[in-house]
Design goal:
heterodimer, A: alpha+beta, three-stranded antiparallel beta sheet, 2 helices, about 25% strand, elongated, B: alpha/beta, Nucleotidyltransferase, domain 5, 2 domains, six-stranded mixed beta sheet, five-stranded mixed beta sheet, 10 helices, about 45% helix, globular, metal ion binding (chain B), Gcp-like_dom (chain B), nucleus (chain B), transferase (chain B), metal-binding (chain B)
């Protein structure tokens, strides 16, 4: 879509590039629920250790709802990594019978 | 040996279950309960799930006696359901799948109910009546699809019951449907619209009618709340029995399986049992541990999918509010 009048940018540093990538993959899988009037782009920056998120929106209300929801989701991902991390190395094979 | 952990949170119930080769090792769950007269909204439901999900996850692992490295696959509800709650739960599933380096499987909510129903009851190839707050479908398996033979053309039967409970300000604890069921035991019949349409059903007219009747007849003392609960159940359950019987006749099937939250209702089971007996068929139903949305049903369907070679890439793991039962190819059955 074309350029929207309102924008917001967020940068979130992570302890490691691996953790940043995990958060990026988890959060970027879902598009904005109501695509009309807002867009969101996520990318990894600064050698992969920082998650960058950029929003463009037509209205302040839509932008605020989206950013607020995203921060809730980011908080949940961080709490999940705290509670059930650190990341384990990839298993060569599953123990499927 | 294959161990799957399943994450479910498509409506107001949040559950995480662990299944290993047909055995449910754990299945903790919690329910977001709103005050009488109110339904649950997506944003508040998602907030509830976000607050409770990690606690339930830890409980599932502890009760199963399973460590993350012993898990082979992470399954989650891809849809259908409420958007924000689905996302909240999928985020955790995606995160732990990456933390533990395990494959991910996106499961259809309805197929979760069917596979758990088949596992628990041993039903082989039944006509499935799937009835809940969000879904009402008559399903038969054929040529690698769970095919929808009949369904609601507007609101789910459970939605109709739940919204009627709101009108009467019935408690939502443990569930409005359960409380309607208890009140119905003390009621007598009031005529309501009967709206079967071939293989399909419609509940919105019945809901409007009984909402109006509740205002008018209760004010005048013409009938009691218990009478309306009884009558609503008798009417909507008879409709469900009729479309199920019609599907049985079309398919020549002698087994019926009821799944979904409304499947807990003993009166529905009783009415379906009567019809099945008359047709020389067998009825299968599960109890509230598995009828109601739970994580183990997602783990079980995930187990079947994973063992047949299906996984979901993280980039394809978006949730969808609409996910038709017949959209999924059933690669794990003949």
């Amino acid at each position: 879509m074309g350029e929207q009048p309102l924008g917001f940018e967020l940068e979130v540093p992570f302890p490691s590039a691996r953790e940043a990538r995990i958060a990026w993959a988890a959060l970027s899988a879902d598009p904005e629920p109501r695509g009309r009037g807002i867009s969101r782009v996520e990318e990894l920056r600064l050698g992969g250790g920082t998650l960058g998120v950029r929003w463009s929106a037509a209205e302040a209300r839509i932008l605020r709802v989206s950013v607020s929801s995203y921060l809730d989701h980011l908080g949940l991902v961080l709490r999940t990594m705290d509670a059930f991390g650190p990341p384990q190395p990839g298993s060569a094979q599953n123990n499927s019978a | 040996m294959t161990v799957v952990i399943g994450f479910e949170g498509s409506a107001n119930k949040l559950g995480i279950g662990i299944v290993r080769d047909g055995v449910v090792l754990s299945n903790p769950r919690c329910t977001y309960i709103t005050p009488p007269g109110q339904g649950f909204l997506p944003r508040d439901t998602a907030k509830h799930h976000q607050e409770r999900v990690l606690e339930i996850l830890q409980k599932a692992l502890d009760e199963a006696g399973i460590a993350p490295h012993e898990i082979d696959c992470v399954a989650y509800t891809k849809g259908p359901g409420m958007g924000a709650p689905l996302v909240s739960v999928a985020l955790v599933a995606r995160t732990v799948a990456q933390l533990w380096s395990k494959p991910l499987v996106g499961v259809n909510h309805c197929i979760g109910h069917i596979e758990m129903g088949r596992l628990i009851t041993g039903a082989h190839n039944p006509i499935v009546l799937y009835v809940s707050g969000g879904n009402t479908q008559v399903i038969a398996y054929s040529q690698r699809r769970y095919r929808i033979f009949g369904e609601t053309i507007d609101i789910a039967v459970g939605n109709c019951l739940d919204r009627f409970a709101r009108v009467l300000k019935i408690s939502n604890d443990p569930s409005p449907g359960y409380n309607i069921e208890q009140m119905a035991k003390r009621g007598s019949f009031v005529e309501l619209p009967y709206t079967v349409k071939g293989m399909d059903v419609s509940f919105s007219g019945i809901l409007s009618y009984i909402e109006e009747a509740a205002q008018r007849m209760l004010a005048s003392g013409e009938c009691t709340a218990e009478d309306l609960c009884f009558s609503l159940q008798e009417t909507v359950f008879a409709m469900l029995v009729e479309i199920t019987e019609r599907a049985m006749a079309h398919c020549g099937v002698r087994e019926v399986l009821i799944v979904g939250g409304v499947g807990c209702n003993l009166r529905l089971q009783e009415m379906m049992e009567v019809m099945c007996k008359e047709r020389g068929a067998k009825l299968f139903a599960t109890d509230e541990r598995f009828c109601i949305d739970n994580g183990a049903m997602i783990a079980q369907a995930g187990w079947e999918m994973f063992r047949s070679g299906l996984t979901t890439e993280i980039k394809d793991s978006w949730i969808t509010q609409r996910f038709r039962t017949d959209d999924m190819e059933v690669t794990w059955r003949d």
